[in-house]
Structure formats: C-alpha cells, structure tokens
Amino acid sequence: MNLHIEKLQQQIEPLREQIINHKVYSVINTLDDLNVFMKYHVFAVWDFMSLLKALQNNLTCTSVPWFPVGSADTRFLINEIVVGEESDVDHLGNRKSHFEIYLDAMKQSDADSSCIDLFVQTLKQTKDFQLSFEKAKVPAAAQRFVENTFDIINSGKAHLQAAAFTFGREDLIPGMFHSIINDIDKKFPDSISIFKYYLERHIEVDGGHHSHLALEMTANLCCTDEQYWKEAADTTIQTLKSRIDLWDGAYQEIKKS
Q1: Per-residue b/e over 97-106, b at no fewer than 16 CB within 10 Å?
Q2: Residue (of 99, 119, 95, 108) closest to 194 by Cα position
Q3: pLDDT band at residue 174, thresholds of 50, 70 and 90?
Q4: Is the predicted pLDDT of residue 10 greater than 70, yes or no?
Q5: Which one of 39, 167, 222, 253 is least enclosed by Cβ atoms within 10 Å?
Q6: Strand partners, 95
C-alpha cells in the first residue's frame, strides 16, 4: 500500500465513521422515509457522474483531432471506470448509467423525482446552476453538496478531482443500510427491487474493482509530490464534510415528515 494513501486514509477515518454511522440511517423505517432519502441522494449520484467526466476530460483526449494525453496507464484506469459507470447493466440487462438506474429506482418506489428532473432539464438548457437550483427548488443541503463538487471540478486540477472521487465517494454506504433496505424490501418487494439492485451493484462495481482503480489513479496523479498529497487530503476532508451535511439535510426532512 502506498504510504501517502495510508496516511490520507488515517486522516479521514473519523469523518468516514461519521458518515457510515450517520443518524439518517436510524430514521429510515418506511418506504416514505426511503423516498425522502433518495430525493437527496440522487444529487450525489448525478454529480458523481460529472466528477467522473471531469476526470476523463482532464486525463484523456476527448476532442478532435486526437493526441495522446498523459500516462497511458492513467488513461486506461479512468476509461475503464467511465465504461462501468456510464454504461452498466440494469436489473433487466439493459445498458444504462448508474444515474439512470437510480431514476428507475425512484420511479418504481414512487419517490418524487421532479426536483432532480427539473434541475437537470433546466441546467441542460441554460447552463445556469443558480437558476436551476431555484427553479427546481433543490433542498439547501443538496445544493451545497453539488456546489462543493463543482468547485472541485472547476479547479481543473486532476489530482483534486481524483481525491474527491476516490476517497470522498466510494465505499460510504454501511452494511446497516443494506439491512434496512432488506427489511423494507420484504414489506414492499415490488417497490424497491431496483433500488436494492442499485445498492448491490454499487458494492460489486464501485466499492470493489473501481475503488482499486481509483486508488491507483490518485497515486499516479499525486506521485511523490507532498503538496499534491496535502491538497488531496484537504479536498477529501471537505468532500466528506459535505456528504455529512447532505445526510443531515435528509435526516431533518425525514424527521419532519
């Protein structure tokens, strides 16, 4: 194991524990509770894809004419992750991105997807984040989460994007949550089977093979540059704090309802 990675993982472990043991999981007891959680979580699923594409744009040539960019090893790592995230298979074997699978899960469980739908539609048409947040009435915690992600994206620094992607997103869903989902699935088997599939796929792809590729990619980008590793740690810490804030927002809305 890379010593810099070990040091960074030790630094962020308390924040990871806060996320894995967050109180939001303790209040998800019904299908309605889960639907509120999904309304917030879907924004993390969407901007994860944007973070991924920012890395691909930075680390490979995505324009014409084509020229080789950076290390071929790093190009391979990011392109393999993109294939898995952007064109995986759903529960029926159809090719879909993880975001599209998540939207299918929301539709099946009758979760309110109008917020994310209108946000994405408005942003696609106008490229104006603030207008899109306002028009879609995006919850404040979800807006702050997306803004933090795009601050990292807009930095243009691949090592920061990779750090947020690698340490701030993967492997953050606890086993306790899977137990809760299994219990809800027993009561509503026709309502959350797609969401259950999404979580299982997340463990299999994102938390397994992709996490190893992401670690290697981050190590390649930071190499032995101490300043890069410090910046990577600072960015990861901010990303994890942003996730805690997102979960706080979901928790408060579930408690109100």
Answers
A1: bbbbbbbbbb
A2: 108
A3: confident
A4: yes
A5: 253
A6: 89
Q: How confident is residue 170, by pLDDT bands cut at 50, 70 and 90?
A: low
- Which tokens is 246 given? 């997102």
Q: Reply yes or no: is the peptide bond before residue 65 cis, omega within 30 of 0.
A: yes
Which of 113, 138, 214 shows the shortest CA–CA distance to 169? 214
DSSP-derived 3-state class of residue 173: coil
Q: Which residues neighbour 216 within 8 Å (Cβ) at sequence distance 6 or greater? A: 73, 77
d(CA 102, CA 41): 10
DSSP secondary-structure letter at 253? H
Q: Which of 207, 210, 220, 212 is nearest to 75 (CA)?
A: 220
Q: What are the structure tokens assigned to 146, written together?
A: 């997306």
Which pLDDT band, with edges at 50, 70 and 90, does 90 fall under? very high
Q: What is the mean pLDDT of residues 124-131?
A: 98
Helix (H, G, I), strand (E, B) or coil at 239: helix
CA pair distance 129, 139, nearest whole angstrom: 14
End-to-end CA distance of the chain: 45
pTM, entire model:
0.93
pLDDT at residue 55, rounded to an integer: 94
Q: Confirm if 2 and 217 have CB atoms less than 8 A apart.
A: no
Residue 213 half-sphere exposure, CB side, CA atoms within 13 Å? 20
Which pair of tokens denotes residue 174?
């606890």
Three-class DSSP category at 89? strand
Cβ proximity of 150 and 255 under 8 Å: no
Peptide bond into 139 cis (omega under 30): no
Q: How many residues does the chain have?
A: 257
